[in-house]
Amino acid sequence: MAFWAELNPTRRKIITGLIFLAPGFLFTIWLRYYPILFGTYMSFFDWDVVNPPGEFIWLDNYTTIFRQGFYWQAWENMLVYVLLVFGLTFWVPVVQALLLDMIGRRWVKNTLTTFYLLPAVIPVTATAMIWRWIYHPSYGIANSITSALGLGTYAWLQDPQFVKMAIILPGMIGGGLVMLLYLAALYSIPDDIYDAALIDGCNSSQLIRYIKLPFMRQVVFVQALFTIVASFQLLDLPFVMTGGGPARSSETIGIYIYNTYQDELSLGRASAASFTLFIVLAVVIYALLIINRSEAE
What is the pTM of this model? Predict the structure, then answer.
């Protein structure tokens, strides 16, 4: 206590802040960065579960996965998933937020916002199981709808040409917390800006183009980063709906890593694939941050 009493107020605030930050910092190092470092360490070994770490083989795990066609097919599938996500689903919450912001009656806006948020509480695995039944070729509602429209029937999850789109298509429902973030960004726009725009004669489309979208820009950019990371780490939906099939046409890097670890019991190669995914994501995110900073300046 004497030591604490002798400190000046500035140092007390610094030490107090460090004390509160220390648990979170230590747990972040332990639960996030330590697994990354340990996984990188594992990738240089023919890992032996019984007598770890096993034989040191340097870069053999990396050269092995780079020679596997299934590995590159998983990367190709991932790029298609990223394109489908941004082409079909990423813009939906933006449009929903803009439409909700235009509704004048508060009770209608609150009701629709709640309606859009409710699906977010359903676990992803449960959603995937439901959509497996919807896509069932014999008695699924998807083929019932396409048949009623005269479009025929499809083997949604059994056809390599349709399976990736079928997995991403449920995301077009939109809503969720992402839509709420966009709506919060629109609520933060001062009324004075709207008043000045209306005095200048701006119509609804001009308000969206010159006022609302610029205010949403940073939120959209951050969400784009999260979407890229989530797309590259995609595992639960394709794993539950197809298991990576048919003929690995829906297999992602996450499923490849899981199968390498679980089925082939090759922890070293699974760790090597995980580390390459980490490097690719780090490079992509860093490049996007640089581009965003240059545009802001």
Answer: 0.88
